[in-house]
Structure formats: C-alpha cells, structure tokens
Amino acid sequence: MTITRAACIGGGVIGGGWIARLALNGIDVAVYDPHPEAKRKVDEVMKNARRAYKRMAAKGLPKEGKVTYAASIAEAVKDADFIQESVPERLDVKLKTLAEIEAAAPADALIGSSTSGFKATDMAKDMKHPERFLVAHPFNPVYLLPINELVPGEKTGKAFVERAKAAYTSIGMKCVVINKEIDAFVGNRLLEAAWREALWLIKDGICTVEELDDIMRYGFGLRWAQMGMFQTYRIAGGEAGMRHFMAQFGPALAWPWTKLMDVPEFNDELVDLVATQSDEQSGKWSIRELERIRDENLVGIMEALAKAEKGKGWGAGELHNAYVKQLGKAAGKKVSKAAEKAKAGKPKKKGAAKGKRG
Amino acid sequence: MTITRAACIGGGVIGGGWIARLALNGIDVAVYDPHPEAKRKVDEVMKNARRAYKRMAAKGLPKEGKVTYAASIAEAVKDADFIQESVPERLDVKLKTLAEIEAAAPADALIGSSTSGFKATDMAKDMKHPERFLVAHPFNPVYLLPINELVPGEKTGKAFVERAKAAYTSIGMKCVVINKEIDAFVGNRLLEAAWREALWLIKDGICTVEELDDIMRYGFGLRWAQMGMFQTYRIAGGEAGMRHFMAQFGPALAWPWTKLMDVPEFNDELVDLVATQSDEQSGKWSIRELERIRDENLVGIMEALAKAEKGKGWGAGELHNAYVKQLGKAAGKKVSKAAEKAKAGKPKKKGAAKGKRG
Asked: For chain B, what is the mean pLDDT?
C-alpha cells in the first residue's frame, strides 16, 4: 500500500521523527499530542529533517505534506489510512490510546506502534480489529535511519503484515519482520545489553562516557555502520570463516567478561556521574547543534555507502540510492489536494483546531 | 616516540593488520610466526591494506617498509624499538612469548600486547622490565580502524604510557588510555555483552543472523560510526539532555529485556545454526571479497566523516584528515636504508631465514 493520509499520535522525539518522514514524503499528517509545546517541538524536528532531506534531494523532493494539529485522537485519526502511535512507554497509556484510536479510525486503517518493548499481542488484547495492528519500531532519528522492526502479534493478519511492510517501505524504510514475539524485540535487546555493561564501566570508574564513546566511534561502530556483528565476525574467522570464529571465540562466552549477571543499581549517584561526564564530553554543543552534526554525519555515511560497489551501493547505501530516486520521482507527481491547499495558504479546519489545545 | 624498527610476533588476522599498518607507514617490520603459511596470510592482509591506503593516499604515501620473516622470536626482536605481540589468546602462550621477547629485545624497547582480554599485570608477572610493557588492544582491521585501547599494568611506567601513546599515535591511531585494569577492557566487554544477547536471539529463533545484522547496519550501527552510546542518548533526551534520558529510560534496566543473566550453552547445534545462517547471508562472497567490501566501506565512511564540519572532520573523520596529511608528509621524507635496500631487490639475511620455518 501507499500512504494517503497519516495520523501520528504523540509528537515527541520519535513521533516528531515519524511526522517529518511522512511529510517529507509528501504525505499529509494529522497530529495529536496534548503537550502544550508539541507544535514547537515538532517544528524543530521538521527543521532538522528538512535540512537533511535538502541534502539528499539530488533528484528533487515531493511537495511537503501538510502537518495539522488535531484537538483529539478521534479528530486526528478519523480520515487516516495510516496511524502511528508514539505515546509514552506505559502499557496503560498505550491501551487507552489504542482504544481511542480504534473508536474513531476507519476499520481497515493500518495501526503501528512505536513501542520500544511491549509485545503487540499484549497491546492488542482489547482491540476490536487486532488484525490490522502491529509493532513498527523505528530508531531515532526516524526521518533518517531506515530500520523498522515489524513485530506482528498473535492476531495480526498475515496479509496485513505484507501491507504494512509495503506502506513503511514506501516511505524509504528497511523493514525486518520479527515473527516470534519477545519483549524489546531485537535492536533494543542488543542496545540494552550494551547499555547495562556501559553503565557498569562508568560506575566502576573504568572509563568515562567520552572514552567509551570514542572506543565505539573510532572502533567497532565504524564496522557496524556497514556490516553487522555476524558478517563482521565471519571475516574475523579469516579463510576458515564462521565455524572457525565460533570455535575460537565461543569458549570466551563462559569467561567473566561482562558484569551482566547483575543490573547496576540505578541511583542519583549514577545519574549524576553520567550526566556530569556527558556535560564534559558534549556541553560545548547544544542539543540542536548535536542533532545537526549527527544528521549531517548520517547522511554523509549513507552517501558514502551509496557509492560503494561501483555505485550500486551497500547496505543502507543501496537503500539510500533507491530512496533518493524515489523522492525525486515523487517530486514530479501531482501532490494531494490538502497539500495544494496548504501551499495556497488556506488554513484547514484541523489547523484551526490547534488553538484549543494546551 | 616515532617507531624506527618494529617486530611483530604473530601474523594472524590481528598480527597481519599490525604488520600492514606499520609497513604502510614506512616502517620496517621483522615478523615471527611459526605457522607454515604465515607469509602467504600476511601477504593477503598486505594486499588489502595496500588497496585501502592507495585510496587514502590523496597526498602521497611513504615508501613501504620492508617486511622480513625471522626464524625465531629472538631474531625478530633483537634490533626492534617497537614490539607487538599478537599470539593466540592463552595466558601460558602469552607468558612464554613475552619471556622469549624479553630475553632478546633491547631493554628499553616498547612491548605491546594485542590481547583481547588479559590484564597487563597478569601477563607481566614474570617480566624483568615490566615498566615498558602494556596492553595495546586494536580492532580488526588493524590497518584501518584507528582505535587502540592502551591498558597499563601495575608495574608499567607512567612516563612509558606517554611514550607508547606517542608511538601508536605516530602510526595514525586513536589511543584511549584505560587506567583501571579489568578483563577484556572496554570495547570487548561491550561486544561480549551484545554477542551473548545476539546468540540468544539466534538460538531462540527470534531472528536470523542476517536479520540481526540488518537491524544493526540500517539502524544503530549508523549512529555509532559517528557518535557513541552516551552522546547519542544525550540527544535522545531531547532538549532536557542526559538527565532526562537517564530518568526516562533508567528504570528499564530492571526489566527483563535481556537474557544476559544466562550464558547460552555453546554447543554444536548453536555453531551449526549460526554457521548455516551465515552461509545463507554471505556465502555469495568469498572472505577476500568481503574484506575488500568492508575496507572500501570503512574508508568511505571515514572520508565522509572527514568532510564534516566544513572539512574539519568529525570523530574518526577528523583523525582521518590528519592521518592522510601525515602519510603525505612522510612520502616526502628519506626512507630507511633497509627499505631502500629492499626496493633495490637485495635480499636481506632475515628474508633468507624464511626457508627455515615451518
């Protein structure tokens, strides 16, 4: 499916990233977020995303979709064929939000959840149409990082998973479907494992956050931007490949090389330590500057990978080539009426509703 | 210090990478590796490294150092001022090797160990001059990835650490000194944590090795090539920064988001599963092809990061700018006599000794 009209429920760091990706693909987005500063925050994300897409638009960009702010979930979702939920990570809040979405949304609208860890089955337990719901978990910044973990629940329709995959792929994403449900899925489990160990290293005074970050970005982080863990280790096995690597390093699993048997106690002292060291590392840049630097680097890396293999591209670079081409193709197409209207400066009803909020 | 004459003990994947980095910096290297095919294997690494450095040599390259093969550790180290040990990861082998190195090396030669996990203090326990020994742990491919974890032992000299830092920095590396000893240091603890969790995900059938790798290289791997974990999360905290991030995600530490309480049983079944999936993912490329692709991607990513911040460069890219400049500067300099001789095609004694090995 292609997306005609999107609704984003929640406009934080992740929700804002979805709004930006959708709008920059020429899709109109209705937003609901009760936060009094939601629009300002989304605008900041949009600004970053526009800068990044401008650089990526070697072949043009579609006319930006119109972003409107609705006074309620019901208003935001009522005409949508694509609904992305990105509210805070509490199951009760997720359940309440999904109930409100379902009560007003078209019965066949796609509903994806940005949850970092809950299972679709648990979130869908009270839904009337759980067959059109699944987890669609992106990574920050959503408008640039292509990955999307699609995790269907027990009642998600088989055909619907394919429809969802097509929808997310149509906005430049790389979908990996995870068919066995597990808390936190794949990406966040790996991140959580590394994060726990990282906190131990900081807490125990082995290194500072800056030293740890440097070990990543001058070391294995460069590897993981283009090959993951297993492909990298296949090479490390040398001519004998993966079996050799496993035989050589497998036994190390039993060595006490991590503290992960324990969870570091999360107290004020640890928060202070990390926050203070983080200020020393990055305090010279504002968050906005860091976002700009990050985005320019991410686009730069994807462009570098796009030139690989004689211009065919590799990994995220191969996808980047296709995405840039697709954005350019869409630039030539007729845009939606709503976008035309918006361009002409005529405020829409939903835009007017904004004043009611917060 | 700058390095005048290097010895590399062990010519495997890591040792070969050291040899290539040193030789391409114009330094003569004496190698000892009892493996009958050591020279062929090192030559393969040199071939890869030459290809990568050729691309990096925008400003020229120094005349390549001469690589000679010694018949014994004693012969390899006797004239060296820089000795890098990269033998298999067994403490008894390390101790025996270090004893042989010390018996023949100049008393003030730098001795660095490539160990992935042993503490310098444990390795130096029988050394006569432990003050000039430390762990210098690189990541594969050593000739391209800049990171070097320098971990002094209890008896390592304070001034010596600075000397070692200068030596490794002189061949383009980014040194992070870790002053508190811990098995596996920092990088490998993070890798081990992620690796354990990854094996659980494969063993439990949540995803395949290809899917897991894709989630990395289309997702957080792209982030970690340019900012590490803490700087990335600082941004994720949004305008409220690191304290907000910690407060928001800290409690998740206690959730059952990893299986790291347990170590996955390392049996034939798991090795088969991973190796078979790895063949499906990467079997269409030989290890040599994968190495070429990886190296081109790594150089491409570093070049992209080198253009960041209006050409000043960011992270590994900033270092890349300096390294390319430095290689070019060295290209103008007079090269060592040994290198001249080698260039003239006159075989050296050590080269002749090669036939005795294996």
From this structure: 89
Q: pLDDT per residue over B216-262, tens digit each?
A: 999 999 999 999 999 998 888 776 778 777 777 766 666 655 555 55
Same domain, B97 and B44: yes
CB half-sphere exposure, B247, CA atoms < 13 A: 10
Nearest alpha carbon to residue A134 among A118, A145, A77, A89: A118
Interface of B with A in 209-248 (CB under 8 A): 209-232, 234-239, 241-243, 246-247
Tokens of residue B280, six digits: 């499906």
A310: left (phi over 0), alpha (psi -120 to 50) or beta: left
Contact A290 B260 (CB under 8 A): no
Which residue's structure tokens are 């992070």?
A: B176
Q: Is residue B194 part of a domain?
A: yes
Find out whether A317 and A308 touch, Cβ atoms under 8 Å.
yes
- The reply to whether residue A228 touches residue B212, judged by beta carbons under 8 angstroms, is yes
Same domain for B46 and B76, yes or no, is yes
Residue A103 CB coordination number (10 Å): 11
Report the distance separating Cα A260 and Cα B258, nearest Å. 9
Residue B13 is labelled as binding a ligand: yes
Strands B28-32 and B5-9: what pairing?
parallel
Shared-domain flag, residues B11 and B141: yes
How far, in whole angstroms, is CA A80 from its chain's centroid? 20
| Alpha helices (H) along B216-345 | 221-224, 229-236, 241-249, 268-282, 287-306, 316-332, 337-343
pLDDT tens digits for range A313-331? 999 999 999 999 999 988 8
- Window 266-325 of B: residues touching A by CB (8 A cutoff) are 266, 270-271, 274-275, 277-279, 281-282, 287, 290-291, 293-294, 296-298, 300-305, 307-309, 314-316, 319
CA nearest A172 in B: which residue?
B218
Shared domain check, A251 and A134: no
Give whole-number Cα distances, A28 to A6, A7, A20, in Å. Answer: 6, 8, 10
So what's the pLDDT on residue B253? 62
Q: What is the DSSP string of A205-253?
A: TS--HHHHHHHIIIIIHHHHTTS-HHHHHHHHTGGGHHHHHHHHHGGGG
User: Above 70 in pLDDT, residue B139?
Assistant: yes
Q: Which domain holds residue B265?
A: 187-284
pTM: 0.89
Nearest residue to B229 via CA among B242, B217, B238? B242
Whether A148 and A197 map to the same domain: the answer is no
Is B204 near chain A, with CB under 8 Å? yes
Do A122 and A57 share a structural domain?
A: yes
Q: What span, in angstroms and rounded, lies between the C-alpha atoms of A162 and A267?
A: 44
Residues B210, B148 share a domain: no
Alpha carbons A101 and A344: distance in angstroms, whole number: 30
Residues 112-141 (B) with a CB less than 8 A from some CB of A: 117, 139-140
Please give the ipTM for the structure prediction: 0.89
Residue A60 included in any domain: yes
Which ranges of chain A have pLDDT less than 70?
A: 239, 249-264, 334-358
**B299 assigned to some structural domain:** no
